[in-house]
From TrEMBL:
Coiled coil: none annotated. The keyword Flavoprotein applies. It comes from Acetobacter senegalensis. It holds the Pfam family FAD-oxidase_C. Keywords: FAD, Flavoprotein. GO terms for molecular function: catalytic activity; FAD binding. This is FAD linked oxidase domain-containing protein. The keyword Flavoprotein applies. Its cofactor is FAD. Transmembrane segments: none annotated. One of its GO terms (biological process) is respiratory electron transport chain.
């Protein structure tokens, strides 16, 4: 749309500040910033602001605050819950960090890297790797997701079981608050007991408290040896038992442990040409295990073979393939990482990013599957995810040949059915994707009372005019 909703004085000030490359108003230029990756939300904006520095970002935010213009922070725009999409009013501006792409430093002594918010996770990983170090965070969208958005949503990913979520990796932050002031928390300290941990308040806040511009991230020594295997198993119970077998032998060696249902795997093998099944025949379920060590020795291979050998003897695993090269390792991981894309190609889907205690995973999957199949006959229940840390993406794909719109009209009924089973097992209705605008209606029943009220008080204290990413996390009433 045009910039007609911006006051002329604000329009001119922003254009002068950011220049033509940093101030987009033409509908052709802004369209991609107004739609989410899943194509569930189609908003409008008065303009897209693309500051190149923290200073320019702060000045732009201050100008918008002066004119009471809502602001929607946006990174790589990979949100699964509409957390970075403006509403349909066209009143808001999108503030994109895509021009803030500098890797400022890598510190070998402290094992940290300092990067701007617009650096993609893949670029940060590659920069660390080139320095013989590793940024352990890994997610499927790492080629487009950026550091600011990853921290704002507290992304988890494949290596959480060993290294934790984004929250555990963030030592320091710099952020622009809703009034345009800059909160500089760029410290490399492991110990800093001086009042409230404000950086942790911003991590996971989904852009509702401020816009992250720079971060100090913890690194690890680059692994010298890795062993990766794809295993065929009977069900989630068997996958969990296999995880326990590896953990019993050497919990520190487990870098990732992923679960994939047979239904979800079949979609990948069918719809993604580069991802054939590397096993002799399909299975009801699969486990992907990766071991890692900074040492160069054969112990990981021995551990992998010993545990899988015993699991095969006991019938816990029915087939397995071990990566014999880095290319084969990447091919195995590509199969896991293409599950979301395959489900997108299969039609409309309802995402349930949930977590439950590890012991409850098999019963949760069984009960939730029955509940959803009862609600929508023919539905394709396609769970996959990070079984090692209890995070299952319990995704539901429309029946073959069904009308996508009609299926999505049942999303709340399906999400609620799954959520109630999650509640039964003491889990969470959002494990790593956040609340965004998709799940705001769940907040009162899950986080109501003093918890939600405390969140509102924090929001009101930092953003009394509700200008920063309005409509996200908090229910409208």
């Amino acid at each position: 749309m045009s910039d007609a909703s911006l006051p002329p004085a604000l329009h001119d000030a922003l254009l002068t500040l950011l220049g033509p490359a940093g101030f987009l108003t033409d509908a052709t230029d802004t369209a991609s910033f107004c739609t989410d990756w899943r194509l569930l939300y189609h908003g409008r904006c008065a303009a897209v602001l693309r500051p190149a520095t923290t200073e320019d970002c702060a000045k732009a935010v201050a100008l918008c605050a002066q004119y009471d213009v809502p602001m929607v922070p946006q990174g790589g725009n990979t949100s699964m819950v509409g957390g970075a999409t403006p509403d349909e009013s066209g009143k808001a501006v999108v503030i994109s960090t895509t021009r803030m792409t500098r890797i400022l430093s890598i510190d070998h002594a402290d094992l940290t890297m300092t990067v701007e918010a617009g650096v993609t996770l893949k670029a940060a990983q590659d920069a660390a790797w080139a320095e013989d170090l590793m940024l352990p965070l890994s997610i499927s969208s790492e080629g487009s997701a950026d550091i600011g958005g990853i921290l704002a949503t507290n992304a988890g990913g494949n290596n959480t079981v060993r290294y934790g979520n984004a929250r555990e990796l963030a030592l320091g932050l710099e952020a622009v608050l809703p009034d345009g002031s800059v909160l500089n928390l760029l410290r490399k300290l492991r110990k800093d007991n001086t009042g409230y941990a404000l950086r942790q308040l911003l991590v996971g806040s989904e852009g509702t408290l401020g816009l992250i511009t720079t971060a100090v991230l913890q690194l690890q020594p680059r692994p010298r040896s890795r062993e990766t295997a794809l295993c065929a198993v009977a069900d989630a119970k068997s996958a969990l038992a296999l995880f326990a077998a590896f953990r019993k032998q050497d919990p520190a060696a487990i870098q990732a442990f992923e679960y994939m249902s047979g239904t979800s795997m079949a979609l990948v093998n069918t719809l993604i040409e580069s991802c054939p099944l590397p096993l002799s025949e399909p299975a009801p379920a699969y486990a992907l295990v990766e071991l890692g060590s900074p040492r160069e020795d054969e112990s990981l291979r021995t551990l992998m073979e010993d545990v899988l050998g015993q699991a095969l003897e006991e019938g816990l695993v029915t087939d397995a393939v071990l990566a014999e090269s880095e290319t084969q390792r990447q091919n195995i991981w590509m199969i896991r990482e293409e599950h979301a894309e395959a489900q997108k190609r299969a039609g409309a889907s309802v995402k349930n990013d949930v977590s439950v205690p590890l012991a409850a995973i098999p019963d949760f999957i069984e009960e939730a599957t029955k509940a959803c199949e009862s609600l929508v006959p023919g539905i394709r229940v396609a769970p996959f995810g990070h079984i090692g840390d209890g995070n299952i993406h319990f995704n539901l794909v429309q029946p073959e040949g069904a009308d996508p719109a009609a299926f999505l009209a049942q999303d709340h009924a399906l999400m609620d059915a799954v959520a109630e089973i999650v509640r039964k097992f003491g889990g969470s209705f959002s494990a790593e994707h956040g609340v965004g605008q998709l799940k705001t209606y769940m907040m009162p029943s899950w986080r109501g009372g003093a918890e939600l009220e405390t969140m509102r008080k924090i929001k009101n204290a930092l953003d009394p005019k509700n200008l920063m990413n309005p409509g996200k996390i908090f229910p409208s009433h």
